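Good day; I would like, with your permission, to put a structural problem before you. What I wish to show you is a protein chain and, alongside it, a tokenised description of its three-dimensional fold. Here, with my thanks, is the record as I have it:
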Amino acid sequence: MYTVYKKQMEVDQLETVKVKSRAKINLTLDALYRRADGYHELEMVMQSLKLYDSIAVKKTAQAGIVLQTNLSFLPTDERNLAHRAAKLMLETFSLAGGVQICLTKRIPVAAGLAGGSGNAAAVLAAMNQLYDLRLSLKELMELGLQLGSDVPYCLLGTTALAKGRGEVLETLPDCPHFYVVLAKPDFGISTGAVFRALQAEKIGCHPDTAGMLRAIAASDRAGICARLENVLEPVTFQMQPQVAKIKDFFLSQGAKGALMSGSGPTVFALYEEEEAAQQAAQQVKNAFRIETVVVTETVDKGEQGYGLSF
């Protein structure tokens, strides 16, 4: 039913599965209207990055979930999506024993990069392999949606169009390669607060999603950069004006394009040359005195995904 990519998932003799959980950015983010269930109807073009967290999931004879992480401030109980994903799998399929999860974080936390959602997706995929459950991608996505709206995309990865809450997904042609600079200010943003403040009916200019899809299909880097747009920016910019200043700084320093990812506060900038990306990273770090600045790259289908079929 599925094939495991060796680069993405490894199984050793100790019944441990090792996975990569990649960061994502939004090339577009549109909110069409607020639905009757309280969620917004979304339309987004998503892109996976080389930046990843490492996760190892191991079977244990003792029941329960033990989560270890390299960041002392991260919760290791049910407040952590990776823990909740493991609990969901154990309970849904009445799996014997428990699991030990070792999570090495590299993706900035609470950054609009789907780090937590990606961790949950990785645990779902790892336990699917570890216990030989043979669940399809669609089945895992349905489970993942119980954990968060970005989890289904994180299972699919690469370049995709997301609709609904984010769970209605269409794989797109690979985005042309970019070097990506991620700059996360030293504060967080509440995704819930941003969406509560968003007045979808008053959005005057929506992203040109159709144009973005054409640009990606044509590998038109200039067309992609010209169509970067996120309707959450005005809300987050009002809450935290520094986010807008970081975006403007990138553009003033020659970025091909720049945008806030998700509800923020991370701003990403796109470059065609690695040297330009590295220079921009140092410039934005110095200008705003922020520690969390990362240079990474976009990935294509050969590097992303858990090898699952629908």
About this structure: DSSP finds ten helices and twelve strands in the chain.
